[in-house]
Amino acid sequence: MSENFELAAVRRGRVADLVASRGAMTLRELCDHFGVSIATMRRDLQALDEEGRVERTHGGAMRKASVNGDLPNDQRKSVGAEEKRRIGLAAISLLDGDEVVFLDAGTTAHAVAVEAIRKPKCTYVTTSLGIARKLQSHGLTDFYLVGGSYEPINDSFAGTLAIEALRALSFDVAFICCSAIDLKARSISVASEAYSQVQKEVLATSRTKFVIADSSKFKPSAFMRTATFSQISGVITNSEASKDDLDVLRKSKLELVLA
């Protein structure tokens, strides 16, 4: 028997309100909260995404972000957690084990840091407090935290001091996060002007530059463009990405790593 349309509409309104208040929720959390099946909740999220009330992700939903705003890291960690875990493992597996590696500020880079214990002889550099803490918790000591003006939205440092410090460094490999991978414009972008400048400095001094992003990031540009596809080496993303999206990346002659 089909569900009453009015009851479904009421529930969807409550789903949108809950996601907006919490920033992000997983599919399982939403199912448990509203007492509905996974199939029902997927239909709700699809409808809400089409209405522009939430942003559907792999494994859940997040508050609809404006073009110049991101959710805080602690709210984004639970979104696509399994995909990010696999991306983190794939990224660390690319390293030989003795490189100087830049880990960007972002939840996907945090997933790389979780796996850094697998390559303990690398030298890691980051602007992220959370990533520095994770490296420390692994017992790793060969890492550097670049300071500057604190950016609470992604728990990291940016600004003039950070940029001056980065200009004195060079990296074998950089793992770069982003808010959006625009397949039409063939570019990556972030929501913060300050952090866009940090990323540009890192890209300019890195030999190999991988963008690490789950497939929910394949969407129109965010506020500040960081780089075009010609300025990066490759993309590491989850294997659930659509064939059409992956074909665009392959045709752009980027190294594509699926996790």
From TrEMBL:
InterPro entries, alphabetized: Carb_Metab_HTH_regulators, DeoR-like_C, DeoR_HTH, NagB/RpiA_transferase-like, Tscrpt_reg_HTH_DeoR_CS, WH-like_DNA-bd_sf, WH_DNA-bd_sf
Domain named HTH deoR-type: residues: 8-63
Gene3D superfamilies reported for this sequence: 3.40.50.1360, Winged helix-like DNA-binding domain superfamily/Winged helix DNA-binding domain (1.10.10.10)
Protein name: DeoR/GlpR transcriptional regulator
Signal sequence range: none
PANTHER family, alphabetized: GLYCEROL-3-PHOSPHATE REGULON REPRESSOR, HTH-TYPE TRANSCRIPTIONAL REGULATOR SRLR-RELATED
PROSITE patterns, A to Z: HTH_DEOR_1, HTH_DEOR_2
Keywords assigned: DNA-binding, Repressor, Transcription, Transcription regulation
This protein's record includes keyword Transcription: yes
One Pfam family, short name: DeoRC
SMART domains: DeoRC, HTH_DEOR
Region (Disordered): 54-79
